[in-house]
Task: structure prediction
Amino acid sequence: MSEMMATPEPNGERHGLWSVNTRRDSDGVLTVAGVSVEDIAREFGTPTYVLDEDDMRSRARAWKRAMDEAFADLAGAEVYYAGKAFLSKAVARWMTAEGLHIDTASYGELQTVLAAGVPGSRIGLHGNNKSDEEIALALEKGIAHIVIDSLPEIDQVARLAAQRKMRAPVYVRVTTGVHAGGHDFIQTAHEDQKFGLSVNSGAAQQAIREIAANEHLDLLGLHSHIGSQILATAGFGEAAKVVLDLRTWAAEQGTQIREVDLGGGYGVRYTDDDAVPPAPEEFAGVLAQAVRDHVSKTGLPAPLVSIEPGRSIVAPAMLTLYEVGTIKDVQTDSGPRRYVSVDGGMSDNLRPALYGANYTAALASRNADGELVRSRVVGKHCESGDIVVHNVGLPDSVEAGDLLAVPVTGAYGRSMGSNYNMMCRPGVVAVVDGQAREIVRRETIDDLLALDVG
Ligand code: LLP
Result:
């Protein structure tokens, strides 16, 4: 990263780092959908996640439109919003209103989506170690599909379906051997990891045979997810081909598989140094081409294709608003560095500490001309790895009480937040058309103490 890089100003562009409705007003205060961050800080406190509702919904719509258009001449497509990136009842309703389905990966995610009034038929369930409770709830609510992730899960789902005198709609999660994406921990399609059933070893084929032979299971689809924060289209095309070849194999065995889910993982820009990711149309085009090739080669009917984007829908729609506290100048081997402490940290964004992820930041409460100082934004936790932004040029005049905004924190920020150091997790404020409202309220110390039963 170039030293002391200034953070780009909000400009309404889709890849400009800030949500499309973020601006700076004539006093230099950042506004989101017409609401100033000063007003948000005054009303809701800091740190706070600020979610641009219209931005998130428009990214969801862009995926839906791209998939519908790319698959119009095939058997159509569905988009599942991956709730693990960030989920709340309001978000579940927005995604449903935009025509998306929702992918859940736990009892809590499933209950949240159901509590929002989303019908089971619009929800999918993942997980490499599902409990009976999770599977039973999914079956009772008429879930669209349960993605089977291991051989023992076949019997588990069949048993729970038999008890309810029903057939469970299932997918098989396949590891294709294709891997792509950011950090090692977020690559999921190579062999030496916990997810899915390998095509190379024959485990996926065994699962297909067992499921097809089980009267309590309806083998609807195949599923592949190759990783996360992927900025190129090639891996998706390769993985699609492996999955579709497996579909051909199944058809040769007499098992027709009607649906294919090609997962999530579409990357976003976090800083000015990151490349602009391909547009949804480009990803959708690569997937549709793989399906077209498969159909023309095999003569099989086209499958219904779904995808599961999370990050690319919500990450750029949210910023985190912090208040600056202690400031400290230190000497390092590479010159002076300013440590700017804020009132949150690794409890509201674990990604820098866990993955070394880079973010950027900007002074949000006023304009500041003049010199930029090489700065590191840090949190208030008892850990030196508690970094919010590794390296950013901030105005020399930044001082305690200023507001600082960190953009692109919508995905895996609140959802991977913690109560480390007994910190209360921030609320999420949704902003639309000049109105701000809390959709997830800030935790209070009473919330935390209520869990502590002595
Ligand atoms: N579908 C499946 C089966 C997944 O495992 C995931 C993400 C997604 C969809 C959504 O992927 P997305 O479009 O959001 O990349 N905590 C990490 C990311 C973990 C992703 C886990 N699975 C991070 O903060 O980078």
